[in-house]
Structure to design on (263 residues):
């Protein structure tokens, strides 16, 4: 934990809870208690969260290999040692998050990283994010960028996601790519533990929404999925043998990833 205090340490913070689930140390006791409670409701969530980060690293590496050196990451959470700037240290990265405490903490973590910046921004007001002066300062006039929407779409409505995705498509240059993750479940299935899980996020001041795969595909239009399409994250990472039916929590829980392109 850094020496400085970022945010109210008497209330859980979603970014710090996520950091704890990743095995990080940038969190407080209230965050650890909250995370352990979430794990008591959905024991597999630690597996899924860590797989989300592994996908982010895999997608970043693939995009760097394709020549991308500018990344715009939306809904970033804490930029710890496993985030984009660490996976691709020579790239220029702009992180964006709506939570001022997360941004302040993130800036502290990035203070020795000249190629990475962190700004406060609400992705549901994506025009303001894209008009931020840091975009041109970091990227110049070049809008052929890699855009991340990882572990964030569950915090907004499908209508909001569709508007964001369309505006990103209009803004980005042809050849740009968008890499995203989608948390899905069977909408006809629930458990008392799932209802308590969702209620816990409401207590942290946010709503957590699962989608179906079909809804995820619809909300990413007009971006086109690459040849791999929408795949379960454990298929992307070739770790299917590490998951059992129990990990789907009785609700067909599944996390997908995709890399999409603007033709």
């Amino acid at each position: 934990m850094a020496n400085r205090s970022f945010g109210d340490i008497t209330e859980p913070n979603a970014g710090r809870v996520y950091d704890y689930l990743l095995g990080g140390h940038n969190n407080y006791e209230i965050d650890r208690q909250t995370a352990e409670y979430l794990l008591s409701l959905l024991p597999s969530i630690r597996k899924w969260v860590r797989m989300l980060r592994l996908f982010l690293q895999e997608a970043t590496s693939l995009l760097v290999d394709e020549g991308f050196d500018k990344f715009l990451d939306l809904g970033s959470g804490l930029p710890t040692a496993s985030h984009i700037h660490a996976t691709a240290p020579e790239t220029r990265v702009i992180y964006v998050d709506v939570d001022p405490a997360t941004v302040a903490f993130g800036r502290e973590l990035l203070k020795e990283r000249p190629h990475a910046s962190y700004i406060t921004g609400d992705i549901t007001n994506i025009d303001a994010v894209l008009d931020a002066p840091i975009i041109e300062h970091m990227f110049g006039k070049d809008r052929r960028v890699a855009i991340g929407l990882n572990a964030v779409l569950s915090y907004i409505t499908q209508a909001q996601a569709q508007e964001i995705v369309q505006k990103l498509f209009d803004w980005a240059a042809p050849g740009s790519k968008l890499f995203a993750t989608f948390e899905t479940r069977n909408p006809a299935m629930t458990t008392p533990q799932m209802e308590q899980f969702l209620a816990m996020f409401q207590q942290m001041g946010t709503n957590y929404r699962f989608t179906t795969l079909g809804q995820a595909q619809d909300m990413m239009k007009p971006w086109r999925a690459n040849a791999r399409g929408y795949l379960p994250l454990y298929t992307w990472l070739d770790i299917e043998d590490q998951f059992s039916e129990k990990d789907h929590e009785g609700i067909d829980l599944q996390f997908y990833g995709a890399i999409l392109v603007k033709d």
Observations:
- The chain is about 40% helix and 15% strand.
- Residues 14-261 form a domain with the Rossmann fold fold (CATH 3.40.50.150).
